[in-house]
């Protein structure tokens, strides 16, 4: 396989999460008045939908659009506040992996279920503004995971010639579904985030890796 494009998730895949998503989510739903006894069930849903667009998750949980938007804004502020406090680190080896992939001739896109502003706050904190060829977040005309839009948008914007030359990697079942639905040849799960080997196998992953740092070797074996 001649890898033209590698689409990588951020939190849990290339960026260590360490509970930040759940912490920011708890802050958000508390701020919009969700009672404490309802929060554990909502957190279960958050874990089940890791990787998906956060506004979609809030809509599913809260129903009312105004409340969902308010919660999404609270989540963004809370998460970016944690990032500003220095609670944002790369997954070991992730930066070198991205550089290795690009040096080998592949283009790299970093994608997320966060809002674009949160994504850029993370990139700024890590000094990764120019690390990848492209960064993408859900927005108008681009649905988040598990839809294929983020991958297909990267394919179009980076002028990839063949979807069979695309690899997708992430730490959730939603990442796997996104990869498979887009037609990517590789949809790899990584075990540094919320997903388990069983989760990935059930979702139809082509590969399950201990870490994103194993991806260049895996892709090299397919060449």
UniProtKB/TrEMBL annotation:
<dbReference type="InterPro" id="IPR022468">
    <property type="entry name" value="PhnX-like"/>
</dbReference>
<dbReference type="InterPro" id="IPR023214">
    <property type="entry name" value="HAD_sf"/>
</dbReference>
<dbReference type="InterPro" id="IPR050155">
    <property type="entry name" value="HAD-like_hydrolase_sf"/>
</dbReference>
<dbReference type="GO" id="GO:0005829">
    <property type="term" value="C:cytosol"/>
</dbReference>
<dbReference type="InterPro" id="IPR036412">
    <property type="entry name" value="HAD-like_sf"/>
</dbReference>
<protein>
    <submittedName>
        <fullName>Phosphonatase-like hydrolase</fullName>
    </submittedName>
</protein>
<dbReference type="GO" id="GO:0008967">
    <property type="term" value="F:phosphoglycolate phosphatase activity"/>
</dbReference>
<dbReference type="GO" id="GO:0006281">
    <property type="term" value="P:DNA repair"/>
</dbReference>
<dbReference type="Pfam" id="PF00702">
    <property type="entry name" value="Hydrolase"/>
</dbReference>
């Amino acid at each position: 396989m001649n890898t033209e494009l590698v689409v990588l998730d951020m939190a849990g895949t290339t960026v260590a999460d360490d509970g930040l998503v759940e912490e920011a989510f708890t802050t958000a739903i508390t701020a919009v008045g969700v009672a404490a006894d309802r929060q554990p069930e909502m957190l279960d849903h958050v874990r089940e939908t890791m990787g998906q667009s956060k506004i979609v998750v809030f809509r599913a949980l809260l129903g009312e659009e105004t409340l969902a938007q308010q919660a999404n804004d609270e989540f963004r502020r809370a998460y970016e506040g944690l990032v500003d406090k220095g609670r944002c680190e790369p997954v070991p080896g992730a930066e070198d992996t991205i550089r290795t992939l690009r040096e080998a001739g592949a283009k790299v896109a970093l994608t997320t279920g966060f809002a674009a502003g949160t994504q850029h706050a993370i990139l700024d904190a890590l000094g990764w503004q120019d690390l990848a060829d492209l960064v993408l977040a859900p927005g108008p005309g681009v649905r988040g995971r598990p839809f294929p839009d983020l991958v297909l948008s990267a394919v179009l914007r980076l002028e990839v010639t063949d979807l069979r030359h695309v690899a997708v990697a992430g730490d959730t079942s939603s990442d796997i579904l996104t990869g498979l639905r887009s037609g990517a040849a590789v949809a790899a799960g990584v075990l540094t985030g919320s997903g388990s080997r069983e989760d990935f196998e059930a979702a139809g992953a082509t590969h399950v890796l201990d870490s994103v740092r194993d991806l260049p070797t895996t892709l090299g074996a397919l060449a």
